[in-house]
């Protein structure tokens, strides 16, 4: 398959001087529906990276005894439901060594995938860094595992076997928070925070179909299948994002999608947690601003303002209740049949600590976990979309 990059993307890629000379390799991923990546990547990869990509810089640094087959470290480049365009891996080592990288399918245990997709070996010399070009697109089911390869024939390396060596590896590229079904009939655009991106320690072992947003997508696709239609999910959610952060990003023209049939706007939780003076007025102003933007930029799309899932901390949750009421106010004042409000307030019990990630501070749970809660969150929004007639109105 030949990748015909547009002039825009070519200029952009040349900016990465260290990598521009390497050919682009597109690898089919588990998140791809009906192999559309092979049909559409050549015309969409450049646009995808330029408009929907975020910088990817995932790394580790470990000190390990140099023995053949010893695990140095492992990297899962993106969270469930995302994709990673890996341009290169950069290695450094305190002493010369030979490293084998296995790129395999992710397991729930997250350790040494048993059936590697690809394997390569690389020499790393003491005090120097080496850049290994990859230039491939991987789904979230891919896992990078690094092990020592014992080399007794290379003088610079043979003498280091059995010694302690500090090795670091960094993946450089872009993460893409969208699925790759470019030929889908409709698009759903998710705008949220870490809850929407599933980026907390309890979710590191999730696969794409287990996340609540992909469950929602699957429910919509099941409905659409009777009409032989399907929907693509673009998830531009970012950890820690507030309504103000997002407005700054949007006003700087740093985030915009070409098409959005349904827009799910779920920013509000971090505003509630921050609870700064005038927080509800600020959030309300930002809701109104985005509603006006939607009406101007996507007049035929449906916009759903989603009131966030409950917070364990009483003060933060009280703030969230207030912000939800301001969401309702913004939607009511818009008086637009294509704009509705859905609350996630009752999707699970906020008084049960087990409903929150163990990475959250005690008594201040934010991130819901567990299949039951994910299913409840997806079902709640899906049922509301059906009740409002939005799914049936997709043309």
Count of domains? 2
Major sheet: arrangement of strands: 1-7-4-9-2
Alpha-beta classification: alpha/beta
Q: Whole-number radius of gyration? A: 23 Å
Distance between the termini: 32 Å
Structure notes:
- The structure is a single chain.
- With 395 residues, the chain is of the alpha/beta class.
- It folds into 2 domains: 7-176, Jelly Rolls, CATH 2.60.120; 186-393, Rossmann fold, CATH 3.40.50.1110.
- The protein has 11 helices and 14 strands.
- The protein has helices at 7-14, 36-52, 155-158, 194-197, 212-224, 243-251, 269-274, 279-297, 314-334, 371-387, 390-393; strands at 25-26, 53-65, 71-75, 83-93, 97-105, 116-124, 129-139, 142-148, 164-176, 186-191, 231-235, 262-265, 302-307, 339-343.
- The strands form 3 sheets. A 5-stranded mixed beta sheet has the order 1-7-4-9-2, covered by helices on one side.
- Helix 9 (314-334) links the parallel strand 13 and strand 14 (339-343).
- Helix 5 (212-224) crosses helix 10.
- The longest helix has 21 residues, at 314-334.
Summarize the structure.
By secondary structure, this protein is an alpha/beta fold. The chain has eleven helices and 14 strands.
SSE topology:
Blueprint: H1 7-14, E1 25-26, H2 36-52, E2 53-65, E3 71-75, E4 83-93, E5 97-105, E6 116-124, E7 129-139, E8 142-148, H3 155-158, E9 164-176, E10 186-191, H4 194-197, H5 212-224, E11 231-235, H6 243-251, E12 262-265, H7 269-274, H8 279-297, E13 302-307, H9 314-334, E14 339-343, H10 371-387, H11 390-393
Parallel strand pairs: 1-7, 10-11, 10-12, 12-13, 13-14
Antiparallel strand pairs: 2-9, 3-8, 4-7, 4-9, 5-6, 5-8
Helix pairs in contact: 1-2, 5-10, 8-9
């Amino acid at each position: 398959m030949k990748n015909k990059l547009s002039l825009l993307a070519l200029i952009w890629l040349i900016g990465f001087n260290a990598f521009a000379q390497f050919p682009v390799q597109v690898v089919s991923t588990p998140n791809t529906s009906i192999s559309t990546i092979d049909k559409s990547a050549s015309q969409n990869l450049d646009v995808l990276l330029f408009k929907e990509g975020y910088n990817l810089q995932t790394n580790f640094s470990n000190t390990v005894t140099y023995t053949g087959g010893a695990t140095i470290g492992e990297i899962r480049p993106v969270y469930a439901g995302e994709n990673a365009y890996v341009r290169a891996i950069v290695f450094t080592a305190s002493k010369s060594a030979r490293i084998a990288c296995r790129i395999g399918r992710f397991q729930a245990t997250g350790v040494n995938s048993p059936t590697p997709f690809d394997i390569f070996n690389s020499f790393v010399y003491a005090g120097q860094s080496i850049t290994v070009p990859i230039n491939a697109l991987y789904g979230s089911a891919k896992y990078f595992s690094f092990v020592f390869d014992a080399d007794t024939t290379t003088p610079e390396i043979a003498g280091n076997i059995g010694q302690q060596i500090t090795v670091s590896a960094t993946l450089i590229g872009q993460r893409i928070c969208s699925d790759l079904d470019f030929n889908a009939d409709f698009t759903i655009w998710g705008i949220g925070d870490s809850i929407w991106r599933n980026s907390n320690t309890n979710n590191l072992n999730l696969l794409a179909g287990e996340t609540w947003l992909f469950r929602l997508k699957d429910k919509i696709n099941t409905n659409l299948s009777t009409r032989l239609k399907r929907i693509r999910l673009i998830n531009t959610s970012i950890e820690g994002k507030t309504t103000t952060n997002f407005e700054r990003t949007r006003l700087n023209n740093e985030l915009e999608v070409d098409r959005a049939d349904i827009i799910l706007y779920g920013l509000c939780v971090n505003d509630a947690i921050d609870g700064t003076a005038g927080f509800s007025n600020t959030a309300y102003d930002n809701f109104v601003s985005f509603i006006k933007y939607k009406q101007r930029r996507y007049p035929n799309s449906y916009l759903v303002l989603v009131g966030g899932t409950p917070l364990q901390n009483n003060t933060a949750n009280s703030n969230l209740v207030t912000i939800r009421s301001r969401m309702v106010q913004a939607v009511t004042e818009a008086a637009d049949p294509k704009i509705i409000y859905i609350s996630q307030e009752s999707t699970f019990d906020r008084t049960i600590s087990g409903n929150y990630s163990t990475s959250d501070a005690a008594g201040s749970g934010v991130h819901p976990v567990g299949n039951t809660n994910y299913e409840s969150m997806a079902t709640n929004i899906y049922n509301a979309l059906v009740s409002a007639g939005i799914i049936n109105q997709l043309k």
